[in-house]
Amino acid sequence: LTVLNAGRRYLKAEDLSGKVFVTSGLGGMSGAQAKAAVIAGCVGIIAEVDEAALLKRHKQGWLMEISNNLDHCIARLREARKNKIALSLGYHGNVVDLWERLVHELDTTGELLVDLGSDQTSCHNPFNGGYYPAQLGFEEAKQLLSTNPGKFRTLVQESLKRHVAAINKLADKGMFFWDYGNAFLLEAQRAGADVVKKGANKTEFRYPSYVQHIMG
User: Fold this and answer.
1) The whole model's pTM is what?
2) Range of the domain at 188
3) Where are its TM segments located (predicted)?
4) CA-closest candidate to residue 90, choices 53, 141, 122, 142
């Protein structure tokens, strides 16, 4: 319902075939986004750093495909988008890399490859394993978390700023991003990312919340 309503409200589309939804998180927040994309008929690319979570969702049938290669992900996205095939593809990697690759595609080809975006990393718990920084691999980041949590926190906040910067560039070109109630925008703001709504007070974000703006 969230994905369908986002399409209705922001894309003015009842039919989401050929549309692309990019998001992250297949662990604690479950694999529902992948299934939702297919039910809605769109192309869903969901990033997840933890391979165990990715494999679990694939085995459960929440994910149709898995890839750890961004070139492959972009190729599959283009193919499914062009042919209007419903697809859920799990990207084994950091969502920041995925967002930045989509910015690169926009910059080099002029193509906006994503229509809808969100995030379901466990950002209510960002410094204790709920969000992993893009600067490190998963195992390396886990080790740093246990040996130097202060450094881990710094890297998470740097990663959140990169995360938002990429989303902002795509949103400026017409992608519609929303907050999924996981404190992503709040933690991004605390990290110093550009998420405040222009001309509004500091408690208002530039992106809507699925509760008030989409489901409401």
Assistant:
1) 0.96
2) 1-215
3) none
4) 53
Cα 21 from chain centre:
8
SS3 content of the chain, % helix, strand, coil (to 5): 50, 15, 35
- Provide the residue count of the chain: 216
What tokens does 208 get? 């809507």
- State pLDDT tens for residues 78-102: 999 999 999 999 999 999 999 999 9
For residue 99, the SS3 value is helix
In total, how many domains does the chain have? Answer: 1
Residue 88 has what DSSP assignment?
A: E
pLDDT digit string (tens) for 155-201? 999 999 999 999 999 999 999 999 988 899 999 999 999 998 887 67
Ordered DSSP codes for 161-212? HHHHHHHHHHHHTT-EE-B-SSSHHHHHHHHT-S-BPTTS-TT-BSS-BIII
Give the H/E segment covering residue 129: none
Q: How would you label 158-172 residue by residue, b for 16+ Cβ within 10 Å and e otherwise?
A: bbbbbbbbbbbbbbe
